[in-house]
Amino acid sequence: MTNATQNVKVSPRHASQYRAWLRAQAGAKSYAPIVVVDGSQTPKRAGRSYYWETPSGAICRHPNAYRRAFGHPIYCASTVRVEVGREWLAAMRIPAEALTVS
């Protein structure tokens, strides 16, 4: 980490703007968490959106219709996130501490 980004206090307003900008760069929704990874990776959307599946593991496109036919669809939560590299953040002068929500 460079001296420019060490011990930097970022106001909650600016931190919120940093997070919104990174999500927009990655093309992710506003609720996607941001994960800082090692390397110089630009912001990218990773993971999978929510979906329903049958007990056998097949994806269920219409869970309500499946349920009405006496099936039991299983909800699988979203794993969508934004991954961004620590070196890329340093080059853009964005402190990684600004991306954590407290």
Task: Outline the structure in words.
The protein has helices at residues 12-26, 63-68, 86-91; strands at residues 34-37, 44-46, 51-53, 74-76, 81-85. It has one domain (3-99). The protein is an alpha+beta fold.
What summary fits the major beta sheet?
3 strands, mixed
Assess the beta-strand content as a share of residues. Answer: 15-25%
Low-confidence stretches: none
Q: What is the strand arrangement across the widest sheet?
A: 1-5-2
Radius of gyration: 19 Å
Which structural category do the helix and sheet elements fall into?
alpha+beta
Q: What integer is the average pLDDT?
A: 86
Give the terminus-to-terminus CA distance: 21 Å
Q: What is the string of helix and strand elements?
A: HEEEHEEH
**What gross morphology would you assign?**
elongated
Percent of residues in helices: 25-40%
Tell how many strands the DSSP assignment holds: 5
Task: Compute the number of structural domains.
Answer: 1
Number of helices: 3
